[in-house]
Write a structure and sequence with these properties.
Radius of gyration: 21 Å
GO molecular function, one term: ATP binding
Order of helices and strands: HHHHHHEEEEHHHH
Family: Belongs to the ubiquitin-conjugating enzyme family.
Mean pLDDT: 82
Organism: Lithocarpus litseifolius
Pfam family, one: UQ_con
Keywords: ATP-binding, Nucleotide-binding, Transferase, Ubl conjugation pathway
Number of strands: 4
Distance between the termini: 61 Å
Low-confidence stretches: 1-5, 48-57
Largest sheet: 4 strands, antiparallel
Length: about 220
């Protein structure tokens, strides 16, 4: 895509023609949700005073609240989230998918939202140690390539969950693990299972009580 500065030299009539019809402020606001590049282009051409764009920065808590309520009503498979300190800090839990190396493991995550959400991705880190090419040794994840402002936290959690079954070794965070995945698959699988058994237990320390969720998923036995 051409740099924003070249787009700003195009007349408004030509931009309207590219988009097939005249663009009102609501149309522009929707287009900014496609990705960061679109937002930069639109702001560069139409100016930074679009009334529908400013509130997203001033009050991201409305968007986060809507997403939290939706997450509670329709959580991604094997996942649950709760507030920790505020709307901007969630705790989450995942159960490793069946038929994967991480099956039955309990994985805890921290989710932090910035004041620029959704135009900046949430910061998601694993509290639980995971042997995986797409998860850093400190539990970090690289979401910039997967994220756009039109996505929701439920979408990105599903993307992360899918990585348990389908690691992306072509775009790793941990290059050593990715190399082992490509060249010594049996060793990789043995170590991933061993780490899951050792670290991804139901007795991890957490600021949130997940016991009911774990009992619902038959990870913990019901207390008498």
């Amino acid at each position: 895509m051409a740099p924003c500065s070249s787009w700003s030299n195009l007349p408004r009539e030509l931009i309207d023609r590219i988009f097939r019809r005249p663009m009102d402020s609501k149309d522009l606001a929707r287009c900014t949700l496609v990705c960061t590049n679109w937002r930069n282009i639109i702001v560069d051409i139409w100016g930074k005073k679009l009334s529908l764009l400013r509130p997203a920065f001033k009050n991201p808590s409305r968007r986060i609240l809507r997403e939290y309520e939706k997450f509670q009503m329709d959580p991604p498979k094997g996942c649950k989230a709760r507030l920790v300190e505020s709307l901007f800090h969630w705790g989450a839990i995942m159960i490793g998918p069946q038929n994967s190396l991480y099956a039955g493991g309990v994985f805890l995550l921290n989710i932090h939202f910035s004041k620029k959400y959704p135009f900046e991705p949430p910061e998601i880190t694993f509290q639980t140690k995971v042997y995986h090419p797409n998860i850093g040794q400190d539990g970090c994840l690289c979401l910039e390539r997967s994220w756009c402002a039109a996505m929701s936290i439920s979408n990105i959690i599903r993307v992360i969950y899918a990585l348990f079954s389908n690691p992306d070794h072509e775009d790793p965070l941990d290059f050593e693990i990715a190399h082992i995945y490509r060249t010594q698959r049996i060793r990789y699988e043995q170590k991933a299972r061993a780490w899951t058994k050792k670290y991804a237990t139901a007795r991890q320390n957490s600021a949130i009580d997940w016991s009911q969720f774990l009992m619902d998923h038959k990870i913990l036995e019901p207390q008498e």
